[in-house]
Design a protein that fits this description.
By secondary structure, the chain is of the alpha/beta class. The chain is built from 6 helices and 7 strands, in the order βββαβαβααβααβ.
């Protein structure tokens, strides 16, 4: 039986002068990441987003090999602007996925197409055993909806911790 674990990266080291995709993992949050190890299979297939905070999270979670897949990156947000209500902007992206919720942001429909296509491909190739993907909250909210046959829900995004895990026992497309 296949199982899919969508792991959101640990707490980032916030640098307001750089876009979030350039942030590193905060060493002060390493213990929180290590606490997830027992909830994840050490075997199976592991992949990560190329973002530094995701790769570092994966390296803390497993001694095994972790492939890096460019299309597992988070919604592209090419701005270092500090948004006073980031959550409201993300919710706007979910409410109107065909349009950028903020200047420099990838429309969520494009993010969904890229991430879901990549997750589906990984599941087709490796879905006979556990698959662990380490990445980001928005991307995993979209992927989780796709593999469960539901609509993307910003409440899933809001509830997912840093780090956090969405687990699907038998994802659609894994056979």
């Amino acid at each position: 039986m296949a199982a899919l674990f969508l792991v959101r990266h640990g707490r980032p080291l916030v640098d307001r002068t750089r876009p979030a995709h350039a942030w590193e993992l905060d060493p002060a949050g390493f213990d929180d990441v290590w606490e997830l190890r027992d909830r994840l299979p050490q075997g199976g297939t592991w992949f990560s987003s190329p973002e530094l905070k995701a790769v570092a999270t994966a390296q803390l979670l497993t001694e095994g090999e972790v492939g890096v897949v460019a299309d597992l990156r988070e919604q592209v947000r090419e701005t270092a602007d500090w948004l006073p209500d980031f959550a409201a902007t993300v919710r706007r992206a979910f409410a109107d996925p065909d349009h950028a919720a903020y200047d420099g942001w990838e429309p969520l429909a494009r993010t969904r197409e890229r991430v879901v296509r990549s997750v589906a491909s990984i599941l087709r190739l490796h879905g006979d055993g556990p698959v662990v993907l380490v990445g980001h909250g928005t991307a995993w909210t979209l992927a989780h909806a796709a593999v469960t046959g539901t609509e993307p829900d910003p409440e899933t995004w809001a509830a997912l911790g840093m780090p956090g895990v969405l687990w699907v026992e038998e994802p659609l497309g894994s056979r």
